[in-house]
Amino acid sequence: MHMVLWYVAAGHKPSVNEAIEKLNYLRKNGETPLAFTFKKRFTAEEAVSYQAIS
Known about the structure:
By secondary structure, the protein is mainly α. Helix content is 44%, strand content 0%. The chain has helices spanning 16-29, 44-53.
């Protein structure tokens, strides 16, 4: 993997370190609502729900 997508709060500007953390998360855990690719999409609501469970 060399690309990752994730939802951020309005107005938040992700840092390069945050992107690296998300990419490493994706590599380790596969696609989840917290980090995903264009192959599998998640909604922002799924990301919020998934964070509450994790």
